[in-house]
Automatic annotation (TrEMBL):
The lineage of its organism: Bacteria, Pseudomonadati, Pseudomonadota, Alphaproteobacteria, Sphingomonadales. This is D-3-phosphoglycerate dehydrogenase. It catalyses: (R)-2-hydroxyglutarate + NAD(+) = 2-oxoglutarate + NADH + H(+); (2R)-3-phosphoglycerate + NAD(+) = 3-phosphooxypyruvate + NADH + H(+). It comes from the Bacteria. CDD domains: ACT_3PGDH-xct (cd04902), PGDH_4 (cd12173). SUPFAM superfamilies: ACT-like, Formate/glycerate dehydrogenase catalytic domain-like, NAD(P)-binding Rossmann-fold domains, Serine metabolism enzymes domain. The keyword Amino-acid biosynthesis applies. Signal peptide: none annotated.
Length: 525
């Protein structure tokens, strides 16, 4: 039974969903990094929010880990390249808390407009400072969105309802989408110059880090109010403090900080600062949504192989998974044979699908070919880390889809580019979904790729099979199946022989010594 650790505070529904799916769960929150490293080796899955830091060394200790599930959106607390390199799928729940977070941004905008936190504190302190608090109206004001994705677009919708004018800077926002949202797409400098309120809704990346830098803060309209419910690190906190103190920035409401938990942030105590402790996603509704969703996604992956909302591998629905399974077995074997025979020389690999295979999601087939190909070089390769390892090895990967049907109702072809030219192998699925190699380097064969095998290239001449059989018998190697193919009568022939025990280099050497044999390569699948 797969076992999952929930290491951050999560709605109890998550554990219920895991158990109902037949997944064992432990819930242990507040672990230090060393404590997490000490126990993570037992788990197949790790369910987190933003507190657990899934760093490269945590992943190194996670020897059984197959999936990290983020009950929420941001995955900047997960080292995704390290997870990919170790073959660990990382998934999130991209929509479950977006309305809630958008509502928090709107709440903070109101808090700034009417100085609600300060007015509340003053009133409860018995001061009744009616003349101290003079707010601004939102109607007719310009709201500048930096990032107009899921959350940003919900914020836009709510702000339009408040009769604000909404402008957005988001390089990936299309003109059509901006029109559909009823907002104006602008460049960053224009947004900085025009916005009365700025709200941030981008992930934290190398491009967005410090997007409200000292320079950019200086370009904002005097009195601008800034809201950040996305990630600390998007704003230069020291520069913001100065701008709040000078009054150029009229107010800032921050839910997120460069360092969290933020117990001693230099901004604390600055005038017109409103702070909440990363509460964007903290509503009952959102937490139930993300808890159920992450547990369903992780359970589906661990028990049925379905992949949803993964950040480092293509999606594969639980419905597609059984259809693709035999193709992935075929693809992995094709990748493995081409790699064992000619992989060292390959600079590029093309994966072509034809006939029925062309109707399927090709990404998992490509992933399986690469897993078979790279699996020859290193252990613990799977579909998650294979593309990453292939890229590291400098292998160019290309996918081709042919709608035509050739001689086979379905075909997967793997072609590598070597200094001697292109070389390809192809396979099909028989009616019972059994994978079969049907072509090897231009020669038609029909072979099952399984267990120990030997691949021989020889000159097609009488007596060869007898001599080979005798030699294998003398070496104590029992033949299970024998598959032959040849380019032309009397020309180059190939034999793919399944054997009951591994063919060592010694036996391979003796086979090579048989007259007419060009190569003899032991294979394993
Ligand atoms: N405070 C909290 O508790 C929560 C915070 N978040 C955070 O909110 C942020 C946004 O989440 P979503 O809207 O779901 O993400 P999303 O991926 O749907 O949208 C992000 C948008 O940012 C845009 N973007 C990317 N690079 C950009 C750049 N250099 N300049 C401008 N725009 C850029 C993208 O094109 C995209 O439209 C994330 O950082 C997420 O972690 C999400 C949920 C809760
Ligand atoms: O979903 C996100 O990106 C969030 O920032 C929410 O974080 P949390 O799950 O509340 O720790």
């Amino acid at each position: 039974m797969p076992k999952v650790l929930i290491s951050d505070q999560m709605d109890p529904k998550a554990a219920e969903v895991f158990r109902a799916a037949g997944v064992e769960v432990d819930e242990i929150t507040g672990l230090s990094k060393d404590e997490l490293k000490a126990i993570i080796g037992q788990y197949d899955g790790l369910a987190i929010r933003s507190a657990t830091k899934v760093t490269a060394d945590v992943l190194e200790a996670a020897t059984n880990l197959k999936v990290v599930g983020r009950a929420g959106i941001g995955v900047d607390n997960v080292d995704i390249p390290a997870a990919s390199a170790r073959g660990v799928v990382v998934m999130n729940t991209p929509f479950g808390n977006s309305i809630t977070t958008a509502e928090h941004a709107i709440a903070l905008m109101f808090a700034l407009a009417r100085e609600l936190p300060a007015a509340d504190a003053s009133t409860q302190a018995g001061k009744w400072e009616k003349n101290r608090f003079m707010g601004v109206e939102l109607t007719g004001k310009t709201l500048g969105l930096i990032g107009a994705g899921n959350i940003g677009s919900i914020v836009a919708d709510r702000a339009l309802g408040l009769k604000m004018k909404v402008i957005a800077y988001d390089p990936f926002l299309t003109a059509e989408r901006a029109v559909a949202l009823g907002i104006e797409k602008v460049e960053l400098d224009e947004l900085l110059a025009r916005a009365d309120f700025i709200t941030l809704h981008t992930p934290l990346t190398d491009q967005t880090r410090n997007i409200l830098s000292r320079d950019n803060l200086a370009k904002t309209k005097a009195g601008v109010r800034i809201i950040n419910c996305a990630r600390g690190g998007l704003i230069d906190e020291a520069a913001l403090k100065e701008q709040l103190e000078s009054g150029h920035v009229g107010g800032a409401a921050l839910d997120v900080f460069v360092e969290e938990p933020a117990k001693q942030n230099p901004l604390f105590g600055t005038p017109n600062l409103v702070a909440t402790p990363h509460l964007g996603a903290s509503t009952t509704e959102a937490q139930v949504n993300v808890a159920i969703q992450v547990a369903e996604q992780m359970s589906e992956f661990l028990t049925r192989g379905g992949v949803t909302n993964a950040l480092n591998m293509p999606s594969l629905s639980a419905e597609e998974a059984p259809k693709l399974k035999p193709y992935m077995a075929l693809a992995e074997k094709l990748g493995a044979i081409v790699s064992q025979l000619e992989g060292e020389k390959a600079s590029a690999i093309a994966i072509e699908v034809e006939g029925a295979a062309a109707q399927l999601n090709q990404k998992p087939i490509t992933g399986a070919v690469l897993a078979g190909f790279m699996g020859v070089y290193s252990q613990s390769v799977n579909m998650v880390n294979a593309p990453f390892l292939a890229k590291e090895r400098g292998l160019d990967v290309r996918e081709v889809r042919h709608d035509r049907e050739g001689d086979y109702h379905t075909l997967v072809r793997v072609t590598i580019t070597t200094p001697e030219g292109q070389k390809s192998v192809a396979g099909t699925l028989f009616a019972n979904a059994a994978p079969r190699l049907v072509e090897i380097f231009g020669i038609r064969v029909e072979a099952e790729l399984d267990g120990d095998m030997i691949y021989i290239v020889n000159e097609d001449a009488p007596g060869f099979i007898g001599r080979l059989g005798t030699l294998l018998g003398e070496s104590g190697i029992n033949i299970a199946t024998f598959n032959l193919g040849r380019r032309t009568a009397g020309g180059e022939a190939v034999a793919l022989i399944s054997v009951d025990s591994a063919v060592g280099q010694d036996a391979a050497g003796r086979i090579k010594a048989i007259a007419g044999v060009r190569t003899a390569t032991p294979l394993r699948f």
